[in-house]
């Protein structure tokens, strides 16, 4: 499963991350960074490891350790459901999307970029689920993290989206601890109820959306 890794991170106060001695590393393990990005390759050679909050985490590449230390919580398995971070962005049509605008609805927030190949590959899937569930109040918000708005406008001129498109210059995706894209979050009444990194399966999306939609 492919993702586009982001290179900017925000530092937060957090418990100490301790390096594990080489002698304490298992021969093989699951890389926490790959797993969080949806690129889990199963058990592979462990080249480094750390201890954080009493648990041990392993890496297939030593260059991944500083990324983990910068913001460990962004790489750990998500707690679901959980309150969604602050979200307040206007779409390109001028409509403001925030917790109030999403109230009582199931909303899929997709963080993407015009330069991200896997982000473009999931567009047909998002179109399908939106067409299927929009009559029941479901919506997809495509949040571009392109650095320049001009790049986004140029792309959309040739590749228009049917759903709302929003532009985020960094504050929102950092608050949501997005470390790779595509990153998708299904929210309902201020709660993140499911999330995906990389290309999700259409059947998995449909099942999660169905469960998040208002009953009756």
How would you sum up this structure, described in words?
It contains eight helices and 15 strands. The chain has 216 residues and is of the alpha+beta class. The chain has two domains: 4-74, no CATH class; 82-212, Glutaredoxin, CATH 3.40.30. The radius of gyration is 18 Å and the shape is globular. Strand 8 and strand 9 form a beta hairpin. It is 27% helix and 25% strand. Residues 8-13 have low confidence and may be disordered.
Provide keyphrases for this structure:
216 residues, alpha+beta, Glutaredoxin, 2 domains, 3-stranded antiparallel beta sheet, 27% helix
What is the strand and helix layout of this fold?
Blueprint: E1 4-5, E2 18-19, E3 28-29, H1 32-36, E4 44-45, E5 48-52, E6 55-59, H2 64-70, E7 82-83, E8 89-90, E9 96-97, H3 99-102, E10 106-112, H4 117-121, H5 123-133, E11 139-144, H6 149-158, E12 165-167, H7 171-175, E13 180-181, E14 183-188, E15 191-197, H8 202-212
Parallel strand pairs: 10-11, 11-12
Antiparallel strand pairs: 1-13, 2-5, 3-4, 5-6, 7-15, 8-9, 10-14, 14-15
Helix pairs in contact: 5-8
């Amino acid at each position: 499963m492919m993702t586009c890794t982001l290179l900017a991170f925000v530092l937060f106060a957090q418990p100490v991350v301790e390096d594990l001695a080489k002698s304490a590393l298992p021969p093989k393990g699951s890389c926490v960074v790959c797993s969080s990005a949806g690129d889990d390759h199963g058990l592979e050679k462990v080249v480094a490891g750390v201890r954080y909050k009493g648990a041990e985490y392993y890496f297939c590449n030593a260059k991944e350790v500083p990324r983990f230390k910068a913001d460990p919580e962004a790489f750990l398995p998500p707690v679901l459901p959980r309150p969604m971070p602050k979200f307040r962005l206007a779409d390109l049509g001028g409509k403001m999307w925030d917790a109030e605008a999403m109230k009582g609805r199931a909303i899929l927030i997709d963080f993407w970029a015009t330069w991200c190949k896997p982000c473009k590959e999931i567009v047909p899937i998002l179109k399908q689920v939106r067409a299927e569930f929009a009559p029941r109040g479901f919506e997809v918000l495509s949040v571009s993290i392109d650095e320049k708005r001009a790049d986004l406008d140029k792309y959309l001129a040739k590749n228009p989206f049917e759903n709302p498109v929003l532009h985020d210059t960094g504050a929102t995706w950092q608050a949501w601890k997005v470390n790779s894209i595509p990153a998708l979050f299904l929210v309902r009444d201020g709660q993140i109820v499911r999330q995906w990194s990389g290309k999700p399966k259409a059947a998995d999306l449909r099942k999660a959306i169905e469960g998040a939609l208002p009953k009756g």
